[in-house]
């Protein structure tokens, strides 16, 4: 056996990193991530979408909107226009100006954010009134949610490599040689640390490529908006990955063939996909998002989003990160026992109860 637990763990971690750095699949996956990021920032500026829907009140508003690339809907009065804006049936409403402040004789009414695309279509920018002004633009918040959720999903699913490598080692009987060399728990720790470092390395590469992609897409301003949130997202992502990595390792240790891996991956897959969909669809529901920001499996996305929107204080993020770290410790301890009890068992799927009971 290797001299100490620390040196054995380092040996396994180095082996995992070197193995995956030599793998074409790893570089192809990273290349797809970078290409996807460039596409997401550049393509929207190349291909335009459908014209924005705008409500118009009165002949002066219709006159101002004439010739603009907008889907104009005439309504009877200001109340009807505001109702359409509140229900988000239209992006904004152009209404008569009764204050005398507008040189065009109209004002723009929007819900939470200044409708820059609508204002840009007008020859002269009129004053803008917001019915429910937000601290952070909803479009920007939606972008942050999309980026964070997608990164968590991709890196979480990337943990399947741990399960697959564990099954491969069992199937080829290499695991018997490894266990004779290093302690089983050092094998688990090395796998988790090795893949966590690989994940962190990919985050660094994406962080370097992001400013270039945003500059090419003429969206440099977004970087200054997203950067503060990244300061919270990166530690949450890394700690959350360790949580999922331990579970992926157990999923791989319970079976002896790649064909059987699907039978043990369901729960872990749910814990990866669940946070992605939960935060993506409920990010604008503040009470629900607040709850999700303290649940260990969803806090890695929800809390950084709340910090970005200004809906949470630093102490809340620290409490959430502490809960996540405590959950990681508990799950890793449980996973190490299950991993040790099932790693050398072959012949079919190992029940969790048998894996737990087989450890002295």
TrEMBL record:
Topological type in the membrane: Multi-pass membrane protein
Record keywords, A-Z: Membrane, Transmembrane, Transmembrane helix
GO molecular function: ABC-type transporter activity
Superkingdom in the source lineage: Bacteria
GO-annotated cellular components: membrane
Sequence ranges assigned to domain ABC-2 type transporter transmembrane in this UniProt record: 28-336
Regions crossing the membrane: 25-47, 143-162, 199-217, 229-251, 263-283, 288-309, 315-335
Name by which UniProt lists this protein: Sodium ABC transporter permease
Organism: Actinophytocola xinjiangensis
Location of the protein in the cell: Membrane
Range of residues in the leader sequence: none
Main location: membrane
């Amino acid at each position: 056996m290797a001299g100490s637990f620390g040196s054995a763990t380092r040996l396994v971690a180095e082996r995992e990193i070197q193995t995956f750095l030599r793998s074409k699949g790893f570089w192809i996956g990273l290349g797809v991530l970078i290409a996807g990021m460039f596409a997401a920032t550049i393509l929207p500026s190349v291909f335009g979408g459908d014209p924005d829907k705008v409500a118009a009140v009165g002949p002066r508003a219709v006159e101002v909107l004439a010739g603009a690339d907008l889907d104009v809907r005439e309504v009877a009065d200001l109340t009807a226009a505001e109702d359409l804006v509140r229900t988000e049936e239209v992006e904004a409403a152009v209404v008569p100006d009764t204050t005398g402040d507008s040189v065009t004789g109209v004002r723009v009414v929007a819900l939470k954010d200044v409708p820059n695309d609508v204002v840009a279509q007008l020859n002269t920018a009129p004053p803008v009134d917001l019915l429910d002004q937000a601290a952070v633009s909803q479009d920007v918040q939606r972008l942050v949610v999309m980026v964070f959720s997608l990164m968590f999903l991709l890196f979480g699913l990337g943990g399947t490599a741990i399960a697959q490598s564990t099954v491969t080692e069992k199937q080829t009987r290499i695991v018997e040689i490894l266990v004779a060399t290093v302690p089983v728990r050092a094998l688990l720790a090395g796998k988790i640390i090795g893949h966590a470092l690989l994940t962190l390395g990919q985050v660094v590469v994406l962080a370097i490529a992001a400013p270039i992609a945003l500059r090419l897409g003429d969206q440099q301003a977004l970087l200054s908006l997203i950067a503060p949130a990244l300061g919270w997202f990166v530690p949450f992502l890394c700690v959350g990955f360790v949580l999922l990595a331990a579970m992926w390792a157990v999923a791989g240790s319970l079976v002896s063939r790649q064909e059987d891996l699907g039978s043990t991956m369901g729960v872990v897959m749910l814990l990866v996909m669940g946070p992605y969909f939960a935060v993506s669809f409920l990010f604008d529901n503040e009470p629900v998002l607040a709850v999700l920001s303290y649940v260990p499996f969803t806090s890695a996305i929800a809390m950084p989003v709340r910090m970005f929107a200004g809906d949470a204080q630093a102490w809340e993020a620290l409490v959430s990160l502490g809960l996540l770290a405590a959950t990681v410790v508990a799950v890793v301890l449980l996973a190490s026992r299950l991993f040790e009890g099932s790693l050398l068992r072959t012949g079919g799927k190992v029940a969790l109860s048998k894996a737990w009971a087989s450890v002295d």
